[in-house]
Amino acid sequence: MNKQAGFTLIELIAVIVILGILAATAIPKFVDLTSDARKAKVNAALASLKSSSGMTHGKFLVNPVSPQTFEGVAVTFVNGYPNAASIAAVSGLAAPDYTTAVAGTTMTATVTANCTASYTEATATVPPVFATVTTGC
């Protein structure tokens, strides 16, 4: 009796083709993860700005004096909210994760170009404005 063992050439080719199709559909998803990670980093910066602004505003309402020390950071207030120069430090947004810049009344935390979170100081009638740009992430 002659028993055959192993796989035929057709079976091996079929398996290789199926694995190729699976790899072709999975690889683009893994390549896009860096963009998703940058967007998550910008959203984390935005949440940090919002929570820091709210906590310091609450402290200001209890004791309306400017500047005040908040977690070891001197915070200067404008209309009861942190000014643009103070918010980055009190939020913990610093290098190497973020590049921060203050231009007038706006502080911007940058991950990459066109991938930013920003804070604009409060006015007498409008609370601080928070924004993100994720087109370049």
General description of the model:
With 137 residues, the chain is of the alpha+beta class. The protein contains three helices and eight strands. A four-stranded antiparallel β-sheet has the order 5-6-7-8, with helices on one face. Strands 1-2 form a two-stranded antiparallel sheet. Helix 2 (33-62) packs across helix 3 (84-91).
- Cα separation of the termini: 66 Å
Spatial extent as radius of gyration? 26 Å
What's the arrangement of strands in the largest beta sheet? 5-6-7-8
Mass-distribution shape: rod-shaped
Rounded average pLDDT? 89
- Proportion of strand residues: 15-25%
Order of helices and strands: HHEEEEHEEEE
Main β-sheet, in a few words?
4 strands, antiparallel
Which structural class matches the secondary elements? Answer: alpha+beta
Number of strands: 8
Share of residues in helices: 40-55%
How many helices? The count is 3
Low-confidence stretches: none
**Oligomerization:** single chain
How are the SSEs placed, and which strands pair?
Layout: H1 9-31, H2 33-62, E1 68-70, E2 73-75, E3 77-78, E4 81-82, H3 84-91, E5 99-103, E6 106-112, E7 115-120, E8 129-133
Helix pairs in contact: 2-3
Please give a quick description of this structure.
The chain is of the alpha+beta class and 137 residues long. It has helices at 9-31, 33-62, 84-91, and strands at residues 68-70, 73-75, 77-78, 81-82, 99-103, 106-112, 115-120, 129-133.
